[in-house]
Design goal:
The chain is an all-alpha fold and 83 residues long. Helix content is 81%, strand content 0%. The longest helix has 27 residues, at 21-47.
């Protein structure tokens, strides 16, 4: 199955229309939940304090979204990989 998928040529237009934007938003949110849960777990393991771990996770949730937005905007200015 994986090999069959790799044999089919894909282009940006097809990729853009093959996934509903709402699905992309749902995937983004679910990934952010996984990432934040990981940060909270690691913080709790290292500090032994759930309140501290939750505080770190809360801050990380906001800062990573801001950083990701800036990262995407910067990549939009780079021509690498664009046709």
């Amino acid at each position: 199955m994986l090999l069959d998928h790799s044999r089919t040529k894909s282009d940006f237009k097809k990729d853009r229309t093959s996934e509903n934007p709402l699905r992309s938003i749902a995937k983004t949110i679910s990934w952010r939940i996984v990432g934040t849960a990981d940060t909270i777990g690691i913080s709790w393991l290292l500090t032994g304090e759930m309140a501290t771990a939750m505080a770190i996770g809360s801050i990380e949730l906001v800062t990573k979204m801001i950083l990701y937005f800036g990262h995407e905007r910067l990549w939009n200015m780079i021509n690498f990989g664009k046709e």
